[in-house]
Design goal:
Rossmann fold; five-stranded parallel beta sheet; Phosphatase 2c, domain 1; alpha/beta; disordered N terminus; five-stranded antiparallel beta sheet; 2 domains
Amino acid sequence: MTHNASKKSKILCVDDEANVLASLQRTLRRRHHVDTALSGEEALCKLADSHDYKVIVSDYNMPNMDGIALLKQVSNATPNVIQIMLTGKAELEMAIQTVNETDIFRFLAKPCEPLILRKAIDDGIEYYDLIESQKQLTRELEQANTLLSKQKAALEQEKQLANSILINIGNRHASNLTGLNWQIRPMEQVGGDLVLSYLHPSGVLHVMLGDITGHGLPAALAALSTADAFEMLSINNLNVADIAQGINEKLNQTLPTGIFCAAMLIRYDIYHQQIDIWHGGLPDGVLINRQQNSFTPIRSDNLPLGVLAGQNYTTSTHSFSSNDFDSLFICTDGATEQVNEQNEMFGDARLTPLLSTPPSDTSLIESITRHIDMFRGDAAQSDDLSMLELDFKQLSQALQTNNNI
């Protein structure tokens, strides 16, 4: 076997006889970088000056400081260095009795066959490299754990900030009007869905259900931009097309590429009983007439908000009389695309029958949520689950009774 000089391991041989050290050098120098010391004191000095020794080979019987005394100090000063003891037969039993007082890796009888000595040193170097590799892995693991802890703390702080933003949005925009029913149940601690509402003094109710791509802080910041734009535009009592256009411009100015908001915007003029709807990217909404058992779908015919900017963005709206319907229902795809343990989707086929007859013991949204939870069983929630219902009769009565218009 040939060894590249740059890869030779450094070893230290200690013996009080110069001829023995010369013999050790001749035996080992082709395979290793060999330093020698004629006493324990000299050996300790060399170990103190250089910290890259992998193996120390020491004679047992030396004046002033014998091999055991030397290796005890080596264990204290440089515990990573692998220790090999050379002893005569008469000294072997005495040396072995002190094994618990040192970290001796191997005892070799003098005189020692070169092949046996080389093998012992090679084993020692291999063991040294293994221990150092384990230490390096431990250091890397500790560094990774430290980094992970910092990232976890930053993520938790980010979640708290995102949650605070969404709570702020909810306090500003979530109306408590009877007949305006909604639910947001995020898949994670902080989701990307939002419900916004604003009642204009003229008697026009503006409502928005949105589903922003992603979760966490990016989604919360997008929700904040959306809410700010919605509030400003609703205060000016603009039509739904202009509100959609304004929110779209705001999102294109403030959000990075790839984040957008699927949404339905609703403008309900309570005096004139008119409903104007802009729909971009959500599942079909449904206008419900329970007396006739009819369902008028409101399909998406616009791109989600934030996808295209400026003159490239066009809007299409729908208008209806609220006298022709009992309510409007809209949900995000977290409802229809929820899967069960058999990987089946809840779908429109299961949702539509629930809309035809309002439950007597709970709200429509609570009833649908209960059916979705029963359907999914032990399967995880697939996405944010958000629903919005406008009960036109209840809204009109509540507003008139409370003198809000």
